[in-house]
Amino acid sequence: MSTAELRYANQLEIIRSEEKDRYMISQLSKQLDELYTKLFGLNNFHIYQTYSHRLSEFLYYLTTTLSNRQTIGEEYICLIQYNPHKRQIPSLLHRLSMVFIRIFGDLISKYILSSYIIKPLVEEYFHPKLSLQTIELICKFLLTFIERTHKIFFYLTGSYYNISKSLTRIRYLIYTRTTSESSSIEFKLNRTMKFLSLCLCIQHIIESYLVLKQIALSITQHRQEIDKKTDEENKIISEDSISSTDHVRCPLCYEFAISNVALIPECGHVFCWQCIHTWVIENQTCPLCKTNTMQSRIVHLINY
């Protein structure tokens, strides 16, 4: 004996529908790529290819969901979009919000996370000059963490497969006939989904740990590079300030003449007192310009 009923779709039915839609979008994306190469060639194709999939998704949902029709996957499984809070079919604005979040939600989330959350926190608690690569790595980890966590909850509850549907509260109804075996099948399905959720949770924890180690290593390496570069710059600045203000580097020994500074009055060149005396005794000339001088002509500078 079987009876007909309208119920919420389970995990397997939603996944089958999503896989069908994903396949159709990929085929549409390939056709758009071929059309672009035929019209404009391969020039700059790699730049516009990243937008091809988003355009394919938009065109697909424009001709189905936004046109008040079922998608190929929904029609294949006989799924109906449903708003459980208002107990009615979602409005056009509701469906438009869902499609917009689904197509552009990752870009918006990435921008908000990197610009207003991750970057200020990194500058305050880690280092003010961390590389954009490290910030993007942290942003990608957070987005992946949220998506995988949401997917685990989907396998446990069967409510919302996509974050876009979770935010807009759009679920699926299905019209089926129930039999005496339906309860046992439902029980086996729930047990399988719980086991799958456990496996995904373990995988999620391991991969999150590995990515966090990679992020920590990247932050540490970058901080060391920045600190090393800063120390070198400060050392160069301090040496320049010493050479330009307090001390003079002797052209003969290349050391700083701190107190014993000697001047050749004929040409104005400055040396260490000991170096220039040793030189003049043997050569009677300036080491730099060869101007004739004498040991008695050398001037000892005080407080130079």
UniProtKB/TrEMBL annotation:
<keyword id="KW-0962">Peroxisome biogenesis</keyword>
<dbReference type="GO" id="GO:0016558">
    <property type="term" value="P:protein import into peroxisome matrix"/>
</dbReference>
<dbReference type="InterPro" id="IPR017907">
    <property type="entry name" value="Znf_RING_CS"/>
</dbReference>
<keyword id="KW-0576">Peroxisome</keyword>
<keyword id="KW-0808">Transferase</keyword>
<keyword id="KW-0862">Zinc</keyword>
<keyword id="KW-0863">Zinc-finger</keyword>
<keyword id="KW-0812">Transmembrane</keyword>
<keyword id="KW-0653">Protein transport</keyword>
<feature type="domain" description="RING-type">
    <location>
        <begin position="250"/>
        <end position="290"/>
    </location>
</feature>
<dbReference type="InterPro" id="IPR001841">
    <property type="entry name" value="Znf_RING"/>
</dbReference>
<dbReference type="InterPro" id="IPR013083">
    <property type="entry name" value="Znf_RING/FYVE/PHD"/>
</dbReference>
<dbReference type="InterPro" id="IPR006845">
    <property type="entry name" value="Pex_N"/>
</dbReference>
<protein>
    <recommendedName>
        <fullName>RING-type E3 ubiquitin transferase</fullName>
        <ecNumber>2.3.2.27</ecNumber>
    </recommendedName>
</protein>
<keyword id="KW-0479">Metal-binding</keyword>
<dbReference type="Pfam" id="PF04757">
    <property type="entry name" value="Pex2_Pex12"/>
</dbReference>
<keyword id="KW-0833">Ubl conjugation pathway</keyword>
<comment type="pathway">
    <text>Protein modification; protein ubiquitination.</text>
</comment>
<dbReference type="GO" id="GO:0008270">
    <property type="term" value="F:zinc ion binding"/>
</dbReference>
<keyword id="KW-0813">Transport</keyword>
<dbReference type="GO" id="GO:0005778">
    <property type="term" value="C:peroxisomal membrane"/>
</dbReference>
<dbReference type="Pfam" id="PF13639">
    <property type="entry name" value="zf-RING_2"/>
</dbReference>
<dbReference type="GO" id="GO:0061630">
    <property type="term" value="F:ubiquitin protein ligase activity"/>
</dbReference>
<keyword id="KW-1133">Transmembrane helix</keyword>
<keyword id="KW-0472">Membrane</keyword>
<dbReference type="InterPro" id="IPR025654">
    <property type="entry name" value="PEX2/10"/>
</dbReference>
<comment type="similarity">
    <text>Belongs to the pex2/pex10/pex12 family.</text>
</comment>
